[in-house]
């Protein structure tokens, strides 16, 4: 059996929607982009949405909204995809890492207060693997210290914590639509906010720093070409129409994994916080002992089952070590997680037989 690591789910409606764009004169930002960003904001529950060309671009714009002075600090997690920390570096800020909770693998709020200095400007929590962070605690700390919060919700479209969707807690939030995400636009991302100033700034930054009503070649500030194109927006619009169905399919695949892997010796299935009343499964990440992880990956590969060591901790990436002098032992919970986590094949249309096949291989290998 050949099982891919992930696979986007593309329907005939998606194809028709994208093709329809090619019959119009609008190929970059136009009516579909407008509808997509409004529709997405409505789905998550914020006032404003700004569609951009990648989740990383949305993060960069969010950091620009903080107006960082050189050396100012943003508290974040080292257990993430590298973009959530790089965006701070883009603006000359300093990422200050706080270790993670050993169960949920999200930032541990109890470490945040200790990390706050007079240079701290904001907190950037990441809802890893589709599980929202403990946002009640994060928001309380932020309010106590007058800090802004940017949510990296790039992996958690539609997830809910205490009845509220991820991406509605902070000053703004970011989403991503790369093909391995729950819904895709090819490349693409989106920034959400309730704040009118952030909204206006984001629209200007994505479009070369143009002002709202300016002539085409009038630029108010240093901006970027972070525009979303209409083909991407059309795909996003079409995928958004069935996002709840997509999330339900992924929930079913995840449940299948958890049921079968719970019976496998030596495998820890994902731990979901009770306050998370809806998961948005981005990837399925199990944990095994660090001594067993790489062997499991190698043996799975021999049987045609791909897997990934997901995440590898950010602070030990070569250029972070060089820039900040990070070393092994700095964030022990995170390091342990990155030695023991294994992402298994996972996608919306994954069949029961495929899940069974993967789990059988895992069980056999773990039995030794
Ligand atoms: C996918 C992702 C992003 C953004 O990725 P792009 O490839 O730029 O769209 C940012 N943060 C996290 C945690 C992600 O998983």
Multimer state:
single chain
Q: What gross morphology would you assign? A: globular
Query: What is the helix content?
Result: 40-55%
Low-pLDDT residue intervals, each spanning 5 or more residues: none
The major beta sheet can be summarized as:
7 strands, mixed
Can you describe this structure?
The longest helix is centred in the last third of the chain and has 20 residues, at 243-262. The strands form three sheets. This protein has a seven-stranded mixed β-sheet, with helices on both faces. α3 (55-64) crosses α7 and α9 packs parallel to α13. The chain has helices at residues 12-21, 31-44, 55-64, 83-90, 109-115, 135-145, 196-206, 230-241, 243-262, 290-302, 318-324, 332-340, 352-367, and strands spanning 48-52, 73-76, 94-97, 120-124, 148-152, 160-161, 164-165, 172-176, 189-193, 276-278, 284-287, 341-344. 40% of the residues lie in helices and 13% in strands. It binds pyridoxal-5'-phosphate. Residues 54-56, 80-81, 83-84, 126, 152, 154-155, 176, 178, 189 line the site of pyridoxal-5'-phosphate.
């Amino acid at each position: 059996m050949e099982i891919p690591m992930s696979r986007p789910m593309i329907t005939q409606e998606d194809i028709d929607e994208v093709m329809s764009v090619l019959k119009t004169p609008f190929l970059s930002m136009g009516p579909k982009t407008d509808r997509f960003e409004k529709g997405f904001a409505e789905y998550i529950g914020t006032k404003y949405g700004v569609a951009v060309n990648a989740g990383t671009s949305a993060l960069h714009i969010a950091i620009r909204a903080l107006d960082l002075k050189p050396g100012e600090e943003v508290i974040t997690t080292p257990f993430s995809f590298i973009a959530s920390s790089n965006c701070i570096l883009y603006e000359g800020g300093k990422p200050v890492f706080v270790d993670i909770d050993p169960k949920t693998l999200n930032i541990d709020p109890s470490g945040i207060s200790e990390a706050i200095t007079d240079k701290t400007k904001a907190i950037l929590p990441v809802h890893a693997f589709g599980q929202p962070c403990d946002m009640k605690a994060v928001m309380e700390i932020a309010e106590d210290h007058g800090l802004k919060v940017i949510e990296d919700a790039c992996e958690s479209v539609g997830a809910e914590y205490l009845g509220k969707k991820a991406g509605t807690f902070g000053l703004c939030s970011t989403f991503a639509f790369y093909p391995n995400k729950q819904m895709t636009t090819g490349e693409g991302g989106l920034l959400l906010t309730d704040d009118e100033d952030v909204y206006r700034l984001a629209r200007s930054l994505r479009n070369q720093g143009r002002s709202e009503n300016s002539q085409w070649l009038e630029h108010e500030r240093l901006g970027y070409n972070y525009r979303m194109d209409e083909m991407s927006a059309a795909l996003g619009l079409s995928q958004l129409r069935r996002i709840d169905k997509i999330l339900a399919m992924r929930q079913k695949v995840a449940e299948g994994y958890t049921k079968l892997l719970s019976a496998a010796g030596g495998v820890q299935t994902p731990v979901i916080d009770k306050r998370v009343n809806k998961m948005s499964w981005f990837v399925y990440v199990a944990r095994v002992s660090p001594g067993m992880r790489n062997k499991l990956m190698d043996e799975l590969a021999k049987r045609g089952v791909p897997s990934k060591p997901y995440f590898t901790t950010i602070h030990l990436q070569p250029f972070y070590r060089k820039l900040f002098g990070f070393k092994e032992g700095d964030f022990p919970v995170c390091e342990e997680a990155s030695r023991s986590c294994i992402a298994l094949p996972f996608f919306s249309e994954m069949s029961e037989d495929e899940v069974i096949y993967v789990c059988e291989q895992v069980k056999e290998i773990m039995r030794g």
